[in-house]
């Protein structure tokens, strides 16, 4: 026996019966000489989970499994989404689980009441245990993204996003928050949450930075353990009892460490760093007994984790000893080389136990998987292992014994959703998460007796302060009425100032009639989620510094300025810091904005004064290009270090003269993406027809002569489809503040589109660019489009010189791309960028220009 095989066998024996199948699988691989040489690297410790294997449960699992057909087994491994299945589908197939994605509600209705949620849970549950069509009775379970409270449900308590909780550095509070979240989720009859995210965030350009607690693995580790305990409860006490839900540590593994902070990108860490930095959340969460792990969209060194036998089976299950189940992420299996959403034996063979398969891909996937088991493409032992794991978790969660969702002790106790005591805990979290970065002359705390002006577009905007994953997936499209009993930051200030006899005015633009004593300006990032939040550097409001203008306008009038900055990550705000007398990083506080006033304003009795206790859990950059800035790095030179946070009375250290110059882009970054998975800031897309222009804010938009929708090519909504319907219409990307593209023009860059023509143009198609002062230049691309095969992806480049030759001022571009036609034409576009290209890309000759 080779040494490797010896170690593996030993581990398998120690791991006991529950892991037998996985071990057999590994044995087979070893026999086939197919084993990954990195196994048994000694890096991944065995985790001593608080939840132990119980022979009684193992017997039940084995017995039930023995009675199941292949069809019934595979159905346990399928998790479709509520927008794509009916209760009848559940009755017919008996899926092991189902989910609602971000912004998916019962009956597709955003205003669904808790009763609607329970009704759906009850109907799905009853259909799952109904054996009339599938001949088996196994309770299904509903999974949801309760990632900062039960955030898809109107009226729920919304806690600060994880980045703010990280700054609070209070594991006990985190456990309480998790308990409350579990309670509110249980009220709606849901069994399982896809939280906590235990990413250790190493690059702040990542659009999910705010879902992580910290750049420091120690914080992630201790929080992960606390939140899992809060969600699931404690073995020997209330483990997965009436008030608890199953938790998920996600996204395994390395999501916070991808190159360039690219969402779903490639993590190039060494194996030791993968464990030391990105594995610590799993050490914390699995020790506390987390029952599920979600596989990550990202790759590790070129291989998608969903398809990595090494990471899912050898590391997680065999070495770390995880005996719960691995759920995939949103069609994540479809991203493995050789797979599609509908077909992917590779994922199960690698160790995925449950496919998350939204969209209508679930049915072909179910059928293909059944077929693959029958043909031996997927060994039955692997299926048995996966299903055993799922059933084990269901038994541990008491799903076979608990009453149905509508009849559980907390079901329907809707007074618990957003209850005052829950909100009070959220307010504590808000207070503790605020980090004071600057406080010249100890201007804070402010007396509530002053005449205070409140300005900025986040001051009275609960949706903005709550960020992504708030009612909708992106957190966009919400207004204050969507948060009954929630409060904005202004609400809290107004309440306390009027009580104390001061005066307060709200004016977003900073207008006033009587000169105020002080202005509190609340501003920051608009909500985003996942890859939509990826940015290429950390400059705040690049190309459009309208908040800076507001701060400066107030300062110029001699009004002291207190800035409250809403953001999902640290950003380069040197100019805004210089223009502020005090500056507070408030992160994404959630539904309880009013707690900000508790800390900001002077309390009547000194001993009741709340202080700032938040400390940066992410280092603060001094240049837009300090994108991967982490304590302990070589040459670490942040503006403000990890752990920084002023308290009242402490000396403020930031001068008012921080460098405001942005150095020019490093050569390697000589690309400006305009649409890449999303329209990137500062650009905004719209469609126009018959003089009506409509900004695009969701996945579909329609005007008389043009329709727009998003499609998934590789990842969610990474492609747009435009259908021109026959009269003059256009798709426009614009920014009211112009962008200087001279660097690009000088390096012979082109406007590059990756596109697919689906219906060839029946008339002329133009690409246009505009610059400030109504200037325009256009290129006719009709002949070019018609010369390419239909329904195939290809790239087209229009040299910027085609536009500048017509007199377009490249230093002041307001519209880098406008596509128009007055005849029928359908096109899909996957990317729009400005960059230099080589010969492999077809260049439009300017001769086509008219
Ligand atoms: C996200 C997960 C989430 C899932 C379900 C995915 O795109 O990456 O974090 O749990 O969607 O909404
Ligand atoms: C869906 C969301 C979902 C998300 C997962 C989007 O395309 O609209 O509901 O949560 O993908 O990443």
**Sequence stretches where pLDDT stays below 50 over 5 or more residues:** 1-38
Instruction: Give the amount of beta strand, in percent.
Output: 15-25%
Oligomer: single chain
Average predicted local confidence, pLDDT:
92
| First and last CA, distance | 76 Å
Shape label: globular
Largest sheet report: 8 strands, mixed
Number of helices: 24
Describe this structure in words.
This protein has 850 residues and is α/β, with parallel strands linked by helices. It is 28% helix and 18% strand. The chain is built from 24 helices and 31 strands. The strands form 7 sheets. Strands 18, 21, 22, 23, 25, 28, 30 and 31 form an 8-stranded mixed beta sheet that branches. A 6-stranded mixed beta sheet has the order 12-17-16-15-13-14, sandwiched between helices. Strand 15 (518-524), helix 19 (546-556) and strand 16 form a beta-alpha-beta unit. The N and C termini lie far apart (76 Å). Residues 1-38 have low confidence and may be disordered. One beta-D-glucopyranose is lined by residues 101-102, 145, 194, 250, 329-330, 530.
Q: Summed up, what is this model?
A:
This protein is an alpha/beta fold and 850 residues long. Helix 20 (574-578) links the parallel strand 16 (561-566) and strand 17 (582-587).
């Amino acid at each position: 026996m080779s040494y490797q095989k010896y170690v593996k066998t030993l581990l398998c024996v120690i791991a006991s019966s529950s892991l037998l199948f996985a071990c057999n699988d590994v044995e087979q691989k070893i026999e086939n000489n197919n084993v990954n040489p990195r196994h048994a690297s000694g890096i991944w410790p065995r985790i001593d989970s608080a939840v132990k294997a119980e022979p009684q449960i193992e017997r039940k699992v084995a017995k039930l499994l023995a009675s199941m057909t292949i069809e019934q087994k595979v159905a346990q491994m399928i998790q479709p989404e509520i927008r794509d299945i009916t209760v009848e589908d559940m009755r017919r197939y008996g899926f092991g689980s189902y989910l609602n994605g971000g912004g998916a509600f019962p009956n597709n209705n955003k205003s669904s009441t808790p009763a609607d949620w329970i009704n759906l849970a009850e109907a799905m549950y009853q259909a799952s245990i109904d054996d009339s069509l599938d001949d088996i009775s196994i309770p299904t379970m509903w999974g949801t993204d309760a990632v900062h409270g039960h955030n898809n449900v109107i009226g729920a308590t919304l806690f600060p996003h994880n980045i703010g909780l990280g700054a609070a550095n209070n594991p006990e509070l985190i456990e309480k928050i998790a308990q409350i979240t579990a309670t509110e989720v249980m009220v709606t009859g849901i069994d399982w949450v896809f939280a906590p995210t235990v990413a250790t965030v190493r690059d702040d350009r990542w659009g999910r930075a705010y879902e992580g607690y910290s750049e420091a693995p120690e914080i992630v580790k201790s929080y992960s353990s606390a939140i899992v305990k809060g969600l699931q409860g404690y073995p020997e006490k209330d483990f997965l009892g009436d008030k608890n839900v199953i938790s998920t540590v996600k996204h395994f593994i390395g999501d916070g460490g991808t190159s360039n902070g690219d969402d779903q990108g490639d993590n190039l860490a060494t194996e030791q760093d993968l464990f030391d930095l990105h594995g610590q959340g799993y050490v914390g969460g699995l020790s506390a007994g987390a029952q599920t792990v979600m596989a990550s969209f990202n790759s590790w060194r070129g291989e998608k984790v969903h398809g990595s036998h090494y990471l899912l089976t050898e590391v997680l299950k065999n070495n770390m000893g995880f005996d719960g189940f691995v759920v995939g992420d949103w069609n994540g299996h479809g991203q493995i080389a050789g797979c599609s959403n509908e077909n992917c034996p590779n994922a199960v063979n690698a160790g995925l136990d449950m496919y998350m398969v939204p969209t209508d891909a679930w049915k072909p996937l179910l059928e293909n998987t059944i077929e693959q088991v029958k043909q031996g493409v997927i060994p039955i032992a692997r299926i048995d292992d996966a299903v055993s794991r799922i059933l084990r978790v269901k038994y541990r969660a008491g799903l076979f014994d608990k009453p149905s969702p509508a009849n559980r002790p907390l079901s329907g106790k809707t007074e618990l959703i957003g209850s005052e005591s829950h909100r009070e805990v959220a307010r504590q979290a808000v207070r503790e998460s605020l980090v004071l970065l600057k406080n010249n002359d100890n201007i804070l705390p402010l007396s509530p007796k002053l005449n205070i002006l409140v300005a900025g577009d986040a001051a009275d905007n609960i949706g903005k302060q709550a960020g992504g994953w708030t009612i909708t997936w992106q957190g966009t499209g919400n207004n204050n009425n969507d948060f009954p009993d929630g409060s904005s930051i202004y609400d809290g200030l107004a309440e306390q100032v009027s009580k104390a006899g001061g005066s307060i005015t709200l004016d977003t633009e900073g207008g006033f009639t009587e000169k105020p004593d002080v202005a509190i300006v609340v501003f920051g990032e608009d909500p985003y989620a996942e890859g939509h939040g990826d940015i290429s550097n950390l400059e705040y409001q690049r190309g459009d510094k309208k908040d800076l203008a507001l701060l400066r306008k107030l300062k110029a009038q001699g009004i002291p300025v207190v800035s409250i900055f809403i953001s999902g990550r640290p950003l380069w705000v040197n100019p805004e810091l210089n223009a502020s007398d005090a500056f507070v990083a408030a992160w994404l506080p959630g539904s309880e904005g009013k707690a900000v006033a508790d800390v900001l304003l002077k309390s009547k009795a000194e001993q009741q004064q709340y202080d700032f206790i938040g400390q940066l859990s992410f280092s603060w950059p001094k240049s837009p290009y300090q994108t991967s800035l982490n304590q302990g790095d070589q040459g670490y030179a942040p503006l403000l270090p990890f752990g920084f946070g002023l308290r009242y009375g402490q000396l403020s250290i930031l001068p008012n003269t921080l460098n405001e110059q942005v150095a020019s882009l490093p050569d390697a970054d000589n690309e400006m993406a305009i649409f890449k998975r999303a329209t990137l800031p500062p650009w905004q897309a719209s469609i126009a027809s018959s003089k009506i222009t409509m900004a695009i804010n969701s996945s579909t938009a329609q005007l008389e002569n043009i329709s727009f929708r998003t499609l998934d090519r590789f990842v969610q909504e990474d492609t747009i489809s435009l259908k021109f319907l026959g009269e003059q219409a256009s798709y426009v990307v614009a920014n009211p503040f112009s962008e200087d593209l001279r660097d690009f023009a000088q390096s012979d860059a082109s406007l590059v589109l990756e596109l697919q023509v689906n219906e060839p143009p029946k008339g002329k198609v133009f690409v246009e660019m505009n610059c400030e002062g109504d200037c325009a230049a256009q290129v006719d691309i009709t002949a070019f489009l018609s010369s390419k095969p239909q329904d195939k992806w290809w790239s087209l480049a229009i040299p910027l010189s085609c536009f500048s030759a017509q007199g377009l001022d490249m230093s002041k571009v307001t519209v880098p791309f406008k596509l128009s036609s007055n005849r029928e034409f359908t096109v899909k576009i996957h990317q729009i960028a400005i960059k230099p290209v080589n010969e492999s890309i077809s260049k439009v000759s300017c001769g086509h220009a008219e």
